[in-house]
Design a protein that fits this description.
heterodimer, A: mainly alpha, Ribonucleotide Reductase, subunit A, 4-stranded mixed sheet, B: alpha/beta, D-Maltodextrin-Binding Protein, domain 2, 5-stranded mixed sheet
Chain lengths: 409, 267
């Protein structure tokens, strides 16, 4: 390999040609530096000494140029690049994170010493070790993660303008109070869904950045949901509803989980999974178009989170035979901690009943109560179906669904 | 001699980083099972005296201090190791491009900025080699920067002063060590349209671990084993090696100090 430095002095730009050329060589590889600068004869050997490259000498070429020869030293950034560096091409004028993932595949395990170096970068040896704890692909990064990230990015919406807020009209008092209570409950639960995944992002090795990136979209989703739920509640003009101790205890037990997979399972598969049915129920009985629209949009986002949680758990179950036992134990521990706190928080149960009834008239309430009972049954059956898809047996799924928190999340 | 097992090393505190370096190396030695501690001196003259008295076991010495220890012990001191960067050190003669100096002969009648009188690379050896090349130094106006005397040029301040004098036109030419020169150039600190290198001296060697002649073979072996176990690829070691300005420790060699011995005889 050769570079032509022309008249450039060592301190006048020559190094911008020499250093990258040496970086492209293996240790022991030879670089020829052509030069018309006399000072380079004095400076290049010293620079080689400082960088532990071997300066072999200089000879004059037929056309009167100096030809310096350098052997690349051993103390440079290794040339070896990751085998995972494939080529990347737009498809149908699109370039997705999934395409990028295909071009730079996830390593089975990641080295804490590579820190924030993007996957595939040539990492200079001797750097500090980073305190990431999620360093194994099979515990962190299901293959679908980049595709889900792409979906999340294109599924973002605007909480200020995408809901027909101006169509909100005053409702009968009972219905308005019920709606305030439901929105208060949803916002409280979504706050936990904002905080719980955020605890794990900083633990994920950046070699699995797509997971952190997906979780970032999940956080943005939760932020938007909190925003719209509180806006809908406040539009009723009577402040917020009740935050129950049942809800508070249930959400604290989520926040205290230290294992990423257990958290993904309890939050996304069981909690957000159950929320899908809850949000469907609210949409079906929504008293106005803005409410129906915001829960419909929130549900669409939540189904992505459930999908990611399912992929995470399914991937884990196929690679780690001990995982089922750990997840069941986590569900049991949480259930034991919440034991005896009763069923669905009463303010929420009453609000859902009145919402489904559409009024406080006793005949309507009877129908609302029946709808609520059906909702609980639907939630249980959906959990069993979802757990089946995640890789659990029917028996395991039934057990886990029954142990799930009466707070839904 | 110092307490039974601990090797006591002397180093000169020319910069606050010296504490970081030797605390780190001390920790590394302990991890290698070699008890070591260090004492810091304000100047190399005191450090050499304390080594000769046996108050310290090993001294991390500049070439000037090393040659003095060799002479004072009639060659009986033990050389334990050196940095890779200590080998084949060179000094440079820089000139202003507008000075009209095209060869060493042209230095006559010009102003030559030189570093501290106890700096091997910025003063002692460049002047010695210039004389050997036939430059009559009595015809050259020397502009000396005698900063940090006793530190033997470790701080590099006098070399930076030389570059500054050249930049400002207070000197036509100047002498300094090759490492500071290429590092300043590589960092983009040098206006190469104004200053360039005229000449490079022959090579010479720089710092050395000097041990007291009576240091026990066990301590010598332990010191070398721990020292040479430091690795550039190891993040903890690398931080220390970077601060001390090397990539690997190398075995000692004495040939690289002949020119300095000669230069000191002539002084």
């Amino acid at each position: 390999m050769a570079v032509d430095g022309g008249e450039l002095a060592l301190g006048g730009g020559l190094l911008a040609l020499v250093r990258p050329a040496l970086d492209a060589l293996q240790p022991g590889g030879i670089l020829a530096v052509l030069s018309r600068s006399i000072s380079v004869r004095e400076d290049l050997p010293s620079w080689c000494r400082a960088g532990r490259h071997e300066y072999l000498g200089v000879e004059e070429t037929a056309d009167g140029l100096d030809r310096h020869l350098i052997v690349r030293g051993a103390f440079s950034v290794p040339r070896e690049t990751s085998k995972a560096n494939g080529s990347l091409k737009p498809r149908d004028r699109r370039l997705t994170a999934a395409d990028l993932l295909e071009a730079a595949v996830l390593p089975p395990s990641a080295d804490p010493v590579t820190g924030f170096a993007p996957r595939g970068a040539r990492v200079e040896p001797g750097g500090p070790s980073y305190p990431f704890t999620l360093n194994e692909r099979d515990h962190v990064a299901p293959p679908e993660v980049a595709m889900l990230y792409d979906q999340a990015v294109s599924g973002q919406w605007n909480a200020s303008t995408d809901i027909p807020w101006s169509k909100v009209r005053p409702l009968p008092d009972a219905l308005e109070s019920a709606l305030v209570q439901i929105m208060t409950f949803l916002a409280e639960n979504e706050l936990s869904a904002l905080y719980v995944p955020s605890r794990f992002i900083a633990r994920i090795h950046p070699a699995f950045a797509e997971v952190a990136m997906f979780l970032a979209t999940q956080l943005a989703d939760e932020a938007r949901h909190i925003d719209v739920f509180l806006k809908r509640a406040r539009l009723c003009g009577q402040g917020l509803g009740i935050s129950s101790v049942t809800t508070s205890r249930s959400l604290l037990s989520l926040l205290q989980i230290e294992d990423f997979t257990e958290a993904a399972f309890l939050l996304s598969v069981l909690g957000e999974g159950t929320f899908l049915d809850l949000l469907s129920f609210i949409e079906r009985h929504a008293p106005d178009e803005p409410t129906a629209e915001l829960v419909r949009r929130a549900r669409s986002d939540e189904s992505r989170h459930v999908h990611f949680g399912m992929a995470h758990v399914r991937f884990g179950l196929t690679t780690d035979p001990t995982l089922y036992g750990r997840l069941e134990a986590a569900v049991r521990r949480r259930a034991a901690g919440l034991h005896g706190i009763g069923g669905v928080p009463a303010p929420l149960q009453d609000a859902l009943t009145i919402l489904a009834a559409g009024s406080a008239e006793p005949g309507a309430i009877a129908r609302g109560h029946e709808s609520f009972r059906q909702l609980l049954e639907t939630m249980h059956l959906s959990r069993i179906r979802r757990l089946g898809h995640a890789g659990f047996t029917h028996q395991q799924a039934e057990l886990i669904s029954e142990l799930h928190t009466p707070n839904f999340m | 001699m110092t307490e039974k097992k601990t090797i006591l090393l002397g180093a000169v505190a020319y910069d606050p980083k010296v504490v970081t370096i030797w605390d780190g190396i001390r920790e590394h030695f302990h991890e290698e099972g070699v008890p070591m501690d260090f004492a810091l001196f304000s100047n190399y003259e005191r450090q050499v005296e304390e080594l000769l008295k046996g108050h310290i076991d090993v001294a991390w010495n500049t070439p000037l201090a090393h040659v003095r220890v060799r002479q004072r012990t009639r060659g009986e001191s033990l050389s334990l190791g050196m940095r890779d960067s200590d080998r084949d050190f060179r000094a440079k003669v820089l000139v202003r491009r507008d000075s009209g100096i095209k060869s060493l002969k042209d230095l006559a009648g010009k102003t030559l900025a030189v570093g501290s009188s106890d700096s091997t690379q910025a003063r002692i050896l460049p002047l010695y080699f210039l004389k050997k090349e036939g430059v009559n130094l009595s015809q050259v106006n020397l502009l000396p920067f005698d900063t940090d005397l006793g530190k033997h040029g470790d701080t590099g301040t006098s070399e930076i002063d030389v570059i500054k004098a050249l930049n400002e036109g207070r000197a036509d030419a100047g002498t300094l060590g090759d490492l500071i020169w290429v590092n300043e150039q590589a960092a983009g600190h040098i206006d190469s349209s104004r200053i360039e290198v005229l000449w490079t001296t022959p090579g010479f060697d720089h710092c050395m671990f000097d041990a007291h002649p009576a240091l026990s073979p066990g301590k010598i072996e332990a010191f070398r084993r721990a020292l040479f176990a430091m690795r550039w690829e190891n993040p903890k070691h690398r931080r220390l090696l970077e601060l001390e300005g090397l990539r690997e420790w190398l075995p000692p060699r004495e040939d690289g100090y002949r020119s300095l011995e000669e230069a000191l005889k002539e002084q």
